[in-house]
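for the recovery benchmark. tokens below, seq after
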């Protein structure tokens, strides 16, 4: 395969190298409960067999930390990453069992509020350096740090990019270079623009590309391809993740789709894609270990089927699988659903409409969708 020309530095993630002249690394994330060691180990091997260079799991509590130790023991040949999410203090206990961890700058303020962000990052870097780990600074559209949201009102992309640049400067000040950055959104156009802006200012930093909440295939693959084709062809991007809403047994499809996109770009094969801003847009997060009810994937598929009649209307519906991404990342959608263990929170923009059982929420969603269509038709 033709090598894609990139300018970033090369870093190590375990025995794996990414960045510089290395091939683009495809990765994925387990959708199993991390505490379920057997299923998680099986899925890590499933993803590795499909060609995932890095596999990520989420760890959020003591039980999952204990499970991670056994998971690592059974997956020695796979580069393993951990998503810290809101519980960054777990990093010290996780570090001996992984090759990389990801923190979200927008979540650091949730714990130990008396400590500064700089102090928290310094602590994370010290742990990473001690254990020979890589770090991903993962900035997401729905959880940008409040400080940067306030500093760049009305400019979400600017807030994302500047947040990432600030955290890069913290790494630079600490003399730590073993890090990558991701800037993710559910809108491919925003992913393209954010990564172009960042790469123009920090071409040395390896980039992890992703369209978050891309949704169900095949639409989720197409959305992702829109962003990846333009960025990879421009030499931007060192590792990628295709985030699809699929059942656990089909999780390897993320990896296969990623490899297809890389191969097509390297061979000069590009796909003509539709304008996702011109009609109904359903976004849904990838199935992962934070999902609190596995009916989430089925619900996303039901939402797509139910709303097919509204295809020509420019409306965004978001279906999120957990309390971490759900509340913030449904705010920008016209209608949003985020799933808990037994109920689904239905929203219209930032307005909460209530919690509904899984077998009742679709009826209420249709009512709200019809109401929205009627209101918008009346003003056209």
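predicted aa per position
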């Amino acid at each position: 395969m033709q090598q894609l020309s990139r300018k970033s530095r090369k870093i190590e993630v375990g025995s794996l190298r990414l960045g510089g002249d290395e091939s683009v690394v495809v990765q994925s994330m387990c959708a199993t409960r991390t505490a379920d060691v057997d299923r998680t180990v099986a899925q890590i091997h499933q993803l590795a067999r499909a060609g995932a260079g890095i596999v990520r799991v989420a760890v959020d509590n003591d039980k999952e930390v204990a499970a991670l130790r056994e998971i690592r023991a059974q997956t020695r040949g796979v580069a393993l990453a951990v998503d810290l999410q809101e519980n960054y203090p777990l990093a010290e206990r996780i570090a001996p069992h992984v090759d990389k961890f990801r923190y979200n700058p927008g979540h650091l303020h949730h714990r130990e509020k008396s400590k500064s962000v700089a102090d928290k990052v310094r602590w994370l870097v010290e742990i990473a350096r001690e254990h020979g780990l890589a770090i991903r600074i993962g900035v997401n559209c729905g959880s940008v740090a409040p400080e940067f949201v306030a500093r760049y009102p009305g400019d979400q992309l600017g807030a994302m990019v500047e947040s990432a640049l600030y955290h890069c400067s913290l790494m630079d000040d600490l003399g730590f270079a073993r890090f990558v950055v991701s800037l993710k959104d559910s809108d491919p156009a925003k992913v393209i623009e954010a990564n172009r802006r960042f790469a123009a200012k920090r071409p040395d930093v390896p980039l992890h590309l992703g369209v978050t909440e891309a949704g169900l295939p095949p639409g989720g693959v197409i959305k992702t391809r829109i962003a990846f084709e333009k960025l990879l062809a421009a030499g931007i991007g060192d590792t990628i993740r295709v985030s699809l809403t699929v059942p656990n047994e089909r999780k390897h499809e993320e990896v296969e789709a990623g490899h297809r996109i890389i191969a097509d770009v390297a061979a000069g094969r590009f796909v003509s894609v539709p304008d996702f801003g011109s009609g109904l847009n359903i976004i849904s997060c990838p199935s992962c270990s934070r999902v609190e009810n596995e009916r989430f994937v089925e619900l996303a598929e039901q939402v797509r089927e139910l709303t097919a009649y509204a295809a020509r209307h420019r409306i965004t519906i978001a279906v999120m699988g957990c309390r971490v991404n759900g509340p913030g990342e449904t705010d920008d959608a016209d209608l949003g659903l985020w799933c808990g263990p037994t109920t689904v929170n239905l929203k219209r923009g930032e307005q909460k409409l209530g919690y509904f059982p899984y077998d009742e929420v679709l009826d209420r969603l249709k009512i709200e969708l019809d109401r929205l269509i009627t209101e918008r038709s009346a003003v056209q």
